[in-house]
Design brief:
With about 60 residues, the chain is an alpha+beta fold. The protein has one domain (about 1-60): Ubiquitin-like (UB roll) (Roll). It contains one helix and four strands. Strands 1, 2, 3 and 4 form a four-stranded antiparallel beta sheet that branches. The radius of gyration is 12 Å and the shape is elongated.
Length: about 60
């Protein structure tokens, strides 16, 4: 498995948004997106927030 950084753009109010990121382990980018959504939804207050995945980036393993 590879590590991916999944970045969201989240809108709380039309004039206020932020970019939370989650690090997930997945086999490919599509699976990373799914796991990122699961991580985002793991907090009950986040479930109804409007959001969009804006970037998925593979993280290089540190040696």
């Amino acid at each position: 498995m590879k590590k991916y950084r999944v970045m969201f753009e989240t809108f709380i109010h039309p004039a206020f948004f932020f970019h939370p990121c989650y690090i997930v382990e997945a086999n490919n980018i599509e699976e990373a997106k799914e796991k990122g959504q699961e991580a985002f939804n793991s907090h009950p207050n986040n479930v109804k927030l409007q959001r969009e995945i804006v970037e998925v980036q593979e993280i290089e393993e540190e040696q």
